[in-house]
Write a structure and sequence with these properties.
Layout: E1 2-6, H1 12-30, E2 36-43, E3 53-60, E4 67-73, H2 76-99
Parallel strand pairs: 1-2
Antiparallel strand pairs: 2-3, 3-4
Helix pairs in contact: 1-2
């Protein structure tokens, strides 16, 4: 499993380890071999505040279309958790469609 975390500011090590931990659980749950994750964290409004932390996750697997999810919140941690939850739901939907 490859994880690339891009566009983050302070507390880089803490954020990267948090993201890797959450994505490792997703990989184990859905048995994603050879999966590559790209994670973008952005502060949309800059210093103005508000609901401006955005987390985007792209999952690429061989011979399958990429899965891209996004979540915005006031906290980067909550935005990451929201994006991971959306990724799980997207993978469940894909599994249901492929089983049908």
């Amino acid at each position: 499993m490859k994880v690339a975390v891009l566009d983050i500011d302070s507390k880089r090590d803490e954020v990267v380890s948090f993201v890797e931990e959450k994505l490792h659980k997703v990989q184990a749950r859905f048995k994603l071999r050879g999966a590559e994750f790209a994670v973008w964290l952005r502060d949309i409004n800059g210093p103005r505040g508000g609901i401006d932390q955005e987390c985007s996750i792209r999952l690429c697997r061989s011979r399958q279309a990429p899965v891209v999810v996004k979540c915005k919140d006031g906290s980067a941690r909550v935005a990451i958790l929201g994006a991971v939850a959306r990724l799980r739901r997207a993978l469940v939907r894909r599994r249901r469609v492929s089983d049908a």
